[in-house]
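Worked problem 6 (solution included).
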Amino acid sequence: MQGVKALQGILETFAKGGGFDRHISRVTVIAGGNGSLTGVMKVEKEDSNRGGFLHGGMTAFLVDVLSTGALMTHPKSPPPGVSVNINLSYMKAAPIGEEILIKASTDKVGGRLAFLSVNIFNKKTGDIVATASHTKFIG
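Solution. The predicted structure is:
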């Protein structure tokens, strides 16, 4: 499965699954395929912490779901599997009202594990908001 339309379809499928995944419906895919995904999302109040900035839990959710979407477009096309580890570094706050740019990529697909990377930027300023690595069990 390749391309922007296919990736947006993957996210829509996640959102229709209900639960917390419904929040992914606000991400718009702008590029992707061959193991990568780039999306944008406006930070809303429901995504924020008490300080009015993107919540760390929402950041982790974006890392998890968007890197999984990137993995699903990889040429080896493994099943999405389950998370083994997410390592996240929060670099700068993203305030309510700002758009963020999320870039997810597949670094390596092995026999049992996939290694993924995600960088989140403030779309307007280019400042890095967060960086993450995500390991998934796929075997």
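Discussion: The first helix runs from residue 3 to 16.
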